[in-house]
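B., you asked whether I could sanity-check this one before it goes into the benchmark set. Here's the sequence:
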Amino acid sequence: MFLRKKGQSTAEYAIVIGLVIAVAAGILQVALKGGIRQKNKKAVDFLVGAGNDVAAFSNAASTDIQLYTQEMRDTTVLGGDANYVDESVMLKGGAEERRQKQVTETTAVSVETIDAAGQ
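And here's what the prediction gave me:
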């Protein structure tokens, strides 16, 4: 490097700094890809092995317990003019689409019971 020519030395410093940044980015890219790959492998191994710890606690002589589910839904259509809405929508090309909306209210209950009488 010639220190007497300021323009040339500034350009040389910029090239050296650019090369250092490029090398550092390449090393970090390899390290980050390896870290992400390792974290992904751990997650997959965890999901594949999920349930093995529960199976170790189960008794081989036990039988399956029946589970019964009962569901009840009650839907009520709310009355009144405010709960029925007619709307018209203009589509491309001048077509018109008409819709009617109504407001309903639904109550849902789900009960799960275990058949303990058969055990």
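One thing to flag: Residues 6-52 form one domain. Otherwise nothing jumped out at me.
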